[in-house]
Amino acid sequence: MKTGKLFGIGVGPGDPGLLTVKAVETIKNADIIITPKTEKKDGSVAYNIARKYIPENVEILPMVFQMSNDMEAVNAQWKENRKIIAQKLDEGKNLVFLTLGDPMLYSTYMYIFNEFRDSDKYSIETIPGIPAFLGIASYINQPVTEWEENVLIIPATASPEKFDAALSAADNAVIMKVYKNFAYVQEELRKHHMMKRSVMVSRAGLPDEIIQRDLDSLPADYKPNYLSTIIAKRDED
Q: Could you report the per-residue pLDDT of 82-108, keeping only the tens digit for each?
């Protein structure tokens, strides 16, 4: 039996209308849709974004990806997920793995992609999506970078040394994964004179989207949503 194919599809920042034509066509022709989620959450944001394009007869396969520092447990979960996907591919099924934003930028899909990318047995194709920060930039009418300016893309989970050094060299910054380290990020934006022109968007393109344009006034213990990104530009004065 011919093995199936695995597709990684980026569903963009939140608006279902921002999926590419190729992504929609691939979703409609899939045998199984994989919807990633963490154990702490019941639903999949990626699934909800793409739901209008998913045929009723398609199998939905929720798959847990733990966000934990316990790498033994995390690796065990990845191994189990890989086993399930390989089994479905061996059955000749075409699988679509949905992921927020773009599959190649800080996505859950990378865990699976790295497991199958060098396989001689299985075929894998990645279909790009609009990264969250580019969707956000359009929503708030703020260019990410212009002319000869540079731009830094960094997770707030980076080490303090790496984060501080990177921000010091940046004209503009895209800061992702800010939900756990907002106080530190806030302090660093002040330090590097990037606070005045910083905007944080949570759950971009979704009905409960939140846009914060005055990050300096937020308390240090403010807890942003998990899906929060900051676009920061160096102060003009």
A: 899 999 999 999 999 999 999 999 888
pTM for the full predicted model: 0.87
SS (H, E, C) 74-138: HHHHHHHHHHHHHHHHHCCCCEEEEECECCCCCCCHHHHHHHHCCCCCCEEEEECCCCHHHHHHH
Per-residue pLDDT reduced to its tens digit, 160-176: 999 999 999 999 999 99
Residues 91, 103: Cα–Cα separation, whole Å = 25
Q: Exposed (0-12), middle (13-18) or buried (19+): which is 194, by Cβ within 10 Å?
A: buried
State how far the Cα of 22 lies from the Cα of 2, in Å rounded to an integer. 23
